[in-house]
Amino acid sequence: MACTSCSTKDGQPKGCKNNGTCGSDSCNKLTVFDWLSNMSLPNVEKPYNWVEVRYKNGRKEYYHNPDNISLSIGDIVATQAKAGHDIGMITLAGELVRVQMKRKNISDNIDEGLKIYRKASQKDIDIWTKSRDREEPMKVKARQFAIDLSLEMKISDIEFQGDGSKATFYYTAEERVDFRELIKVFAREFRTRIEMKQVGFRQEASRLGGIGSCGRELCCSTWLTDFRSVSTSAARYQQLSLNPQKLAGQCGKLKCCLNYELDTYLDALKDFPKTDAKLQTEKGIAVCQKTDIFKRHLWYAYEGEWNNWHKLTTDQVNEIIDLNKKKQKVASLEEYAADLVEDTKTEFENVVGQDSLTRFDNPKSKRRRKNNRNRKNNRNRNKRKPQNSKNAAK
Fold first, then answer.
1. Angle (deg, nearest 10), helices 122-148 and 180-190
2. Could you tell me if 265 and 258 are in contact, meaning their C-beta atoms sit under 8 angstroms apart?
3. What is the pTM for the complete model shown?
4. Ramachandran class of 252: left when φ > 0, alpha when ψ lies in -120 to 50, beta otherwise
């Protein structure tokens, strides 16, 4: 999905000139599709006069439109700020703005909210683009100043206000940082108002964006807005190896996607017996060695015979545990494991019309080899016959 300004020309994408791509800084970053855009309001109703404006790296704010300016998605507007004005892009208008504000618990009180001044003029856009061009070289210098002052912090991003009067420095830190001296250095060097804002590591990854290990864009930078805590128990329940390099995302924390299927695994594990429960049999005590949540199987081994595993279903294990609670023992696990007969034969269908994959597995028979030898000998004899006839004629 892309906006109209990102259409291709001669097979090459033009791009939206928003200092980024659709995947990292523009069109698809936490966007909301307006399903009600083609629907007309009743005659009595008036259009909702609040709009959603997006700034750099997906930051969104909601503004009141007191002058009823005709606005549509994609318009560049000048908005009210605490001091001066800011420049942003309209990303949502109409009734869905009311829904979004209600979902985010934002009041639509006109006296408390900020307003839209006007559509941005060419002069506003020129100042805005010049300020955006200053951000990257400023970030390099800002990081060097923080290193020179021996501050345990990382300057992750810089965002200029639309009129260029203020720069917001986003940073991450493990502990509280005294950056009063750093602000003095910034103000003296960059000649602008400075605002420091600390963000978490997950928020930093969502602002910067990127590609995850799954090959897709980061969830936090495209659609995920609430960052829930993720613990290693989520990986244990899903039987994932506790490898920090694989479980950690680009933010250095555990991946948010570990929580996506956790509830499904927890519901499936309700029918499973506890892994520390031992089975009492006449042959001996059996201990759980492995579980398969998808097939609902468990593997048990007798104490002292750890290499010999017996596969049981969850119903069979629960039945044995119920008998043990009644102080009854089963004869052995082999009786239950014998009921599970696996069909190990796998049949593949040739849907593409290709040759058999097993055509080279079976060795060629001796008859075929003898036939091939006889054919070669006959061919050689036929080649020699014309030469002998010519010699005889001479």
1. 130
2. no
3. 0.65
4. left
Nearest residue to 286 via CA among 315, 327, 324, 340: 324
pLDDT (tens digit per residue) in 49-67: 899 998 887 788 999 998 8
Looking at residues 87-96, what average pLDDT do you find?
88
Summarised one tens digit per residue, pLDDT across range 215-273 is 888 888 888 878 888 989 999 899 888 888 889 998 889 999 999 999 999 998 888 99
- Sequence spans of domains, the chain: 19-120, 127-204, 228-270, 279-337
Q: How far apart are CA 153 and CA 156, in angstroms?
A: 9
Say how far apart CA 311 and CA 300 lie, in whole Å. Answer: 7
The fold of 127-204 is: GMP Synthetase; Chain A, domain 3 (3.30.300)
Alpha-carbon distance of 372 to 111, in angstroms, equals 96
State the Cα–Cα distance between residues 25 and 202, nearest whole angstrom.
17
Distances (CA, A) of 324 to 329, 339, 390: 6, 20, 99
- Its sign, for the CA torsion 33, 38, 44, 49, is positive
